[in-house]
What does this fold into?
Amino acid sequence: MKRTEAREQAFRLLYSLQLIEEKDLEEQLELFFEENNIDDKDAVDYIRDIIIGTNNNNSEIEKAISENIKSDWDITRISKIDLTLLKLGIYEIEYSKLPYKVVINEVVELAKKYGDDNSKSFVNGVLASIVKKSEV
It folds into this structure.
């Protein structure tokens, strides 16, 4: 499985976890891998890292989002899809230290596929703002 495909699978699981009350991550991960026939070790490790890492750093990630949206906006106004995409992107840029250009490009592509008409520019803008602040 290519990294792009694994990233999309990670997004799908991360999104579904935001919608359910059950938070037994290991159980949810195993169910997701089984239901989606994901047995590629690299993909499993990559998805597991994103899900657990995002969960463990959720407060810091949400703080970064809040600090990089318009001052009259609140994080609760962001659609679940856009919020999930932002969390995925921030985790990969800030914690996995993946090249931000690759991450932003791929997350924006996911925004085009899953989000609404404004998602791609919103997600791109927030992630670009975070990268710009971290480079200073």
Observations:
- The chain is about 75% helix and 0% strand.
- The two ends are 36 Å apart (CA to CA).
- The mean pLDDT is 93.
